Amino acid sequence: MIRLHRWWRQRTLERARKRYDDADWRAAWDRLPLLDDLTSDEAASLCDLAVLFLRDKAIETAQGIALTDSMRLTIALQACLPILHLGLHWYSDWYAVILYPAEFRPKHEHIDEDGLVWVDDQPMSGEAWERGPVILSWEDVIAGGERDGYNLVIHEFAHKLDMRNGVANGHPPLHSDMNDREWAAAWSAAYDDLCQRVDAGDETSIDPYGAESPAEFFAVCSEAFFEIPTQLRDDYPRVYEQLARFYRQDPAARFR
Q: What local confidence, expressed as pLDDT, does residue 109 receive?
């Protein structure tokens, strides 16, 4: 059975790879300096994951944006970086990415505790739905990967990982060799620190948007983990350690 599974995976990969030519790969890779520190083996594994991701997930467009294969690969490479050592099954139970050309205005109805209904139509660059699609702004997708701490794709896909055990709350399902109490202690202390610094008007190395909620803090720290790993490690070493164990990667060690 193991040999059959390997044969099937290899055959699937060979078929999927044929869809994308070298120019598409170069265009996608050139957009993502974020990937330059990967070893050759890691880069090859990431490319395999990306083509399998694109085989399983539809990328649907909105507002007339024209989708090219290099754009598909740009999204898939960033989406698969967090699961490089986890596997594609971590993105199961949903099927599509929806791509807008720029910021979009979703209209979400909310009912407050007094029973009043209000509509949230603030412009957004990305959104992740539980068991639903990931929605991205292409303008913000191509702004990612520049090693500045901002990466919309990693942010939204971190939410997807967080949602694997229910509503996003900053506590994704952990591996069997991890401890829930250690996770909660590390994240709670770091989150409180960021909130205090943001409230005081201090500059922070990670996006202050992380102070919005524990879920956003997890997503923002995941961005920093891959984009500016040494800064995150210096500011919040316990959070960095937990992310290294969760993602099974150590970006600071390979950072050049």
A: 52
